[in-house]
Design a protein that fits this description.
The chain is α/β, with parallel strands linked by helices. Helix content is 34%, strand content 26%. It has 7 helices and 10 strands. It has a 6-stranded mixed beta sheet with strand order 6-7-8-3-9-10, with helices on both faces. Strand 9 and strand 10 form a beta hairpin. It is globular and about 50 Å long.
Length: 213
């Protein structure tokens, strides 16, 4: 699905060779500030690279329409994007962006329940706590049914109990789906327990690629 060869991005990150297969779960670990977030952004071309090649489905990223790419390869950042308006609006706006059919309220509530977010659809999204906003953003991207989901520390703003719920959601719903998942985490333990591949990035360099499944 993704193949990276001799990639360099603004002296932030260098990847000599890496392959991410379709349907594979890859966890990205390493020290803070080491280039993990930039690595995710490379995969959906949110940042450009000066050297090397990145292909997605055997097509060079530079030849693909970036908007169309991001409808399939969706990044959920560590600090979620929350739009002014209701919870409902924040859920539906993802479907609108991806040009997919809108769903009814029962489907929206079902997705919120999966991440343990018990909020009215007419609640003001900007008044939610940081952890609630993170779960709302996760529900939004899951409604978009991405082919590839890029998660940047999706439990960083959550308390321990909610973190366990989201981890269980990822395990029960994402790992058993056809989604290709690439997730940055601080926990090597989580990566070894749930991933198929663990990529270690330190000081902007991929230092190890380990099959862990």
């Amino acid at each position: 699905m993704f193949r990276l060869n001799n990639v360099r991005c603004r002296d932030i990150i260098r990847v000599e060779e890496l392959c991410i297969e379709e349907g594979e779960t890859t966890f990205v670990v390493g020290e803070s500030g080491g280039g993990k977030t930039t690595f995710l952004k490379l995969l959906n071309h949110l940042v450009d690279y000066e050297e090397g090649t990145i292909t997605y489905q055997d097509q060079d990223l530079h030849s693909l329409d970036a908007v169309l790419l991001r409808r399939e390869v969706i990044l959920m950042p560590q600090v979620p994007v929350i739009f002014p308006g209701t919870v409902r609006h924040n859920l539906l706006i993802g479907l609108e962006f991806s040009k997919k059919e809108l769903v009814d309220d029962s489907r929206l509530l079902e997705e919120l329940a999966k991440v343990g977010l018990q909020k009215s659809l007419v609640a003001d999204a900007e008044e939610l706590s940081g952890g609630e906003q993170q779960r709302l953003a996760l529900s939004r991207v899951m409604l978009m049914e991405p082919k590839v989901l890029l998660l940047d520390e999706p439990t960083s703003a959550l308390d321990e109990e909610t973190e366990e719920k989201i981890t269980a959601y990822i395990s029960n719903h994402l790992l058993n789906s056809s989604i290709t998942l690439v997730m940055v985490t601080h926990s090597k333990k989580l990566a070894r327990e749930m991933g198929k591949k663990m990529v270690t990035i330190n000081n902007g360099v991929v230092t190890a690629v380990e099959e862990v499944a």
